[in-house]
Design a protein that fits this description.
Largest sheet: 5 strands, mixed
CATH topology: YaeB-like fold
Order of helices and strands: EHHHEEEE
Strand content: 25-35%
Oligomer: single chain
CATH class: Alpha Beta
Helix content: 25-40%
Shape: globular
Strand order of the largest sheet: 1-5-4-3-2
Structural class: alpha+beta
Number of helices: 3
């Protein structure tokens, strides 16, 4: 199992969402993604190279995997129409 680190901005991202969505996303992160980050996520390209995206409905969890430390750093969480904007 990988440990999960939430970037400081993530708290702000989550506060913008409804409580039920927050609970579902937290469950996805800790119950699924923390166990299989490479298998569940999609490797991103272009300006997001090195990051992965994990889907929850219309929301995306953008993260980086540090295999040597068995750590996942969540970089952003948001609606698919907004989360990929630089």
């Amino acid at each position: 199992m990988y440990s999960v680190i939430l970037d400081d901005k993530i708290i702000e991202d989550l506060e913008k969402l409804r409580q039920e969505i927050i609970a579902q996303i937290r469950a996805k992160i800790y119950d699924h993604l923390a166990h299989h980050p490479r298998e569940l996520g999609k490797r991103l390209q272009g300006p997001h190279k090195g990051l992965y995206s994990y889907r929850h409905g219309n929301y995306r969890i953008i993260y980086r995997i540090f295999v040597d430390k068995k750590t996942i750093v969540i970089n952003s969480i948001g609606h698919r129409s907004e989360v990929y904007k630089i």
